[in-house]
Amino acid sequence: MLRAEPALFGPVASGLTVSRLVDVLAGAGPRVGGDPPSEVRSPRAGRKLAGTHAPDASGRQVVVDIDGVLVLAHSEKQDATAPWKRTFGHHPLVPFVGHGRNGSGEPLAGLLRPGNTGSNTAADHITTNRMAQLPKQYRLGRQTLIHTGSAGGTHEFPNWCTLRGSRLSYSVGMTITDAVHHVVLQVPDSAWTPAVVPDGQVRDGAWLAALAGDALKGRPAGMRRIVRKESRTPAPSCGSPTPTVCV
């Protein structure tokens, strides 16, 4: 993986060189057997060094993004199969905790899966969430928000997040079915409110509304289903939401 980015990591030792080094260290016995520093022994201890940039600084909500990624394999590998995108490889599921808009994500775990594993597999999302290496105080409770795309929009995963033993906050995407599309078309113009971007500014030509009734059937109590519509053309000066398309 390091060798694939020479501009970023520079020259990387060959596999044989690394193997010889491991043999040397293994034969050194007690000279290399001492306890490593706490920052090495526990990567999560590094958050203390991050100060105000740590994901849990100032008691703010910790956001964990769970997403799958296709990893291509160019030869026969264990569990390498053909996924739905007509490639060949693996389909791991990885949770990341955000470090703010100007930071990167911190991987918390990784669930290795064959390439033909489905996207919206609730059992895998639950397993991945349990594997996530979060501090004990953030493994349960509303202060931790679990975020996924439409792959997590199953019935089982949000229901698991709201179990008495978990009670995690969650935000999942959902596919717009014909039934949901029909409900959206019944939302009156007065129920739509302008959408805003993360910094609080209004997004031109975009509106939000919350669905109710059958659109929430079988979903956890208190769940809100938010839909967005946007103008097919640049937003008119009058702010009218009439040529729109649901997204």
What does it look like?
It is a single chain. This protein is of the alpha+beta class and 247 residues long. The chain folds into two domains: 58-174, 2-Layer Sandwich (Nucleotidyltransferase, domain 5); 176-247, no CATH class. It contains seven helices and eleven strands. The longest helix is centred in the first third of the chain and has 13 residues, at 15-27. The relative contact order is 0.09.
Q: Can you summarize this structure?
A:
This protein has 247 residues and is of the alpha+beta class. It is built from 7 helices and 11 strands.
Q: Which labels suit this protein?
A:
11 strands, Nucleotidyltransferase, domain 5, disordered C terminus, 247 residues, four-stranded antiparallel β-sheet, five-stranded mixed β-sheet
What is the topology, as strand order, of the major beta sheet? 5-4-1-6-7
Q: How many angstroms does the end-to-end distance come to?
A: 36 Å
Question: Structural class of the secondary elements?
Answer: alpha+beta
CATH class of the largest domain: Alpha Beta
Q: Characterize the overall form.
A: globular
Order of helices and strands: HHHHEEEEEHEHEHEEEE
Ranges where pLDDT stays below 50 over 5 or more residues in a row are 235-247
Q: Kindly state the mean pLDDT as a whole number?
A: 80
H/I helix tally: 7
Question: Whole-number radius of gyration?
Answer: 23 Å
Number of separate domains: 2
Report the portion of residues in β strands.
15-25%
Instruction: State the CATH architecture of the largest domain.
Output: 2-Layer Sandwich
* CATH topology annotation of the largest domain: Nucleotidyltransferase, domain 5
* Tally of strands: 11
Helix content: 10-25%
